[in-house]
Amino acid sequence: FNDGVYIINTCKGYEKLLFKKVLALGDMKIEEVLEELSNIISFENEYFFKAQSMKYMQIAEVLYGLLIIDTMDKVKITLDEGEYEVSTCSFEDLVYTNKRLPMYAKNDFSNLWFEVLESGELYIKYNSCREQGEESIGKKIENIICLIEKENIERVTVDLRNNLG
User: Fold this and answer.
1) pLDDT in tens, 9-29
2) Residue 144 phi/psi, 5° resolution?
3) Could you tell me which SUPFAM superfamilies the record lists for this protein (predicted)?
4) Which of 1, 125, 132, 138 is most solvent-facing, going by the fewest CB within 10 Å?
5) What pTM does this model have?
6) Running DSSP on this structure, what letter comes out for residue 92?
7) Neighbours of 34 (CB within 10 A)
């Protein structure tokens, strides 16, 4: 959170809020919101807390239960460019985009994915040790090894930050 908390997905109708810095939820500063969330999230280190707190911060019931917001129907969000009152929405209504996201936040719903970066480095994001879809994790790893050999990749980053097992 060195550079703050930003909105990276939203409901239809609120696209103008995408990629804006969040200063407060309800009448509570974002730093205080994070402090409140730290009381209910079990975490071993700051990186896990960062990942988990962003998930909890999206749940109106959690914010309401912590007395951060007054109602579960609407949330007042103060951004670096103004104040907005937004209606809560379901996850199905979210507008998700991988544009402008940092690598660690892309493809959050995929258990294992990889991408060769412009620098030639291979970035592998391993979110979960569970099978997903038709292709097994073993087969995906075989494909990664073949890619490394075929493209003569010298640098590999394996990102496990969201992998809980």
Assistant:
1) 887 788 888 899 999 999 999
2) -65, -45
3) ClpP/crotonase
4) 138
5) 0.56
6) G
7) 19
Q: Which amino acid is at 28?
A: M
Tokens of residue 147, six digits: 């890619």
pLDDT of residue 89: 62
Closest to 31 in 3D by CA, of 44, 42, 21: 21
CA-to-CA dists, residue 43 to 46, 53, 64, angstroms = 8, 10, 22
**What token pair was written down for 136?**
């097994």
> What is the rounded distance in angstroms from the CA atom of residue 67 to the CA atom of residue 58?
14
Residue 100 scores a pLDDT above 80: no
Amino acid symbol at 59: I
pLDDT at position 101 over 90: no
Return the amino acid letter for 73. Answer: D
pLDDT surpasses 90 at 87:
no
